[in-house]
Design brief:
This protein is an all-alpha fold. The radius of gyration is 18 Å and the shape is elongated. Helix 4 packs across helix 7 and helix 6 crosses helix 8. The protein has eight helices and no strands. It starts with 6 loop residues before the first helix and ends with a helix. Helices cover 82% and strands 0% of the residues.
Length: 174
């Protein structure tokens, strides 16, 4: 059976198998600070290609995701009037942002834990946390815990069933 990969697939595979794989992983997470990119895909690919390193990549992903969340927090806290409103209007509706603010006012820890695990526009919630002036170290703690849990789950699930899914997709696309 002929093996096929897309250009993007071969590019990322080269990066994952290079001696600089850890740096590529960190760079992709660092870029998420500035662009909206689904990092679960990066986590899943690294889990498939480096299953012996899933713990390391879960921690590294959670660390960089926390740094990215802090940038959202600072945007809401310090730069709301200059760029915060523009970012929110580009990625969310005023109603969604209003709901996020309302939720933070009542239960900021639970909101962080819930939004960190769900497939929601996470940047909206990090900016809202800064706008609401959620206690910063509490925010960082909850973000790290929930992102570590999320990326660990993605890694372990991918390691467990990922190869089967790829085999199934290959059968469908051939």
């Amino acid at each position: 059976m002929e093996e096929h990969t897309s250009c993007a697939g071969s590019w990322i595979e080269k990066k994952i198998n290079s001696p600089y794989a850890n740096y590529w992983f960190a760079l992709l997470f660092a870029l998420e600070t500035f662009i909206l990119f689904p990092l679960d895909i990066v986590v899943a690919i690294f889990a498939l290609k480096k299953p012996d390193r899933i713990g390391f990549y879960s921690i590294l992903g959670a660390t960089f995701s926390t740094i990215g969340a802090a940038s959202g927090y600072f945007t809401g806290y310090f730069f709301w009037d200059t760029i915060g409103k523009k970012i929110i209007s580009a990625i969310s509706s005023p109603q969604t942002f209003g709901k996020a603010v309302s939720c933070y006012a009542k239960h900021h820890g639970l909101v962080i834990l819930a939004t960190g695990m769900l497939p929601l526009p996470f940047k909206v919630f990090t900016i809202a946390a800064g706008f609401c002036q959620v206690p910063f170290f509490s925010f960082l703690f909850f973000i790290f815990i929930v992102r570590l849990a999320r990326y660990s789950l993605v890694m372990f699930a991918t390691k467990s069933i990922g190869a089967k899914i790829i085999t199934m997709m290959d059968r469908i696309t051939l």
